Amino acid sequence: MNEYKIIDNLPFGFDFHNRSRKELIKYSEWFYQNKEQRMFELNRAVQQFTGKMLQQDYSIHSLAKLNSFLLNNIKSENLSKQELEEKRKTVPTYITI
């Protein structure tokens, strides 16, 4: 699969419980402004891997299909300490590897 474009424009990390109401509202606005682009990016990644478009209608059926795709296609890999450090350099700091 080609590289999945990581979200790189978050207003802040995922530490929601440490955020003020104003910051959470800003995050909500960001989420809805970026939702369609993220859905497009997800569909592009699935289509590249399977050759099929992902049904994106927010139904339980479509979410179950996405879950099945992820469970069957996303794998973890064991990395050496050096490989892990190299990988960390390419991933935003708010994502824990």
Question: How would you describe this protein?
Answer:
The structure is a single chain. This protein is 56% helix and 0% strand. By secondary structure, it is mainly alpha-helical. The chain starts with 20 loop residues before the first helix and ends in a 7-residue tail after the last helix. The mean pLDDT is 82.
Notable traits:
97 residues; 3 helices; single chain; mainly alpha
Secondary-structure blueprint:
Blueprint: H1 21-50, H2 60-73, H3 81-90
Low-confidence stretches: none
* Main structural class: mainly alpha
CA-atom Rg in angstroms: 16 Å
Q: Biggest sheet, open or closed, and with what strands and sense? A: none
- In whole angstroms, the N-to-C terminal distance is 20 Å
The helix fraction, in percent, is 55-70%
The mean pLDDT is: 82
Task: Characterize the quaternary organization of these chains.
Answer: single chain
What's the number of helices?
A: 3
Global morphology: flat
DSSP strand (E) fraction?
A: under 5%
Quick description:
The protein is mainly alpha-helical and 97 residues long.
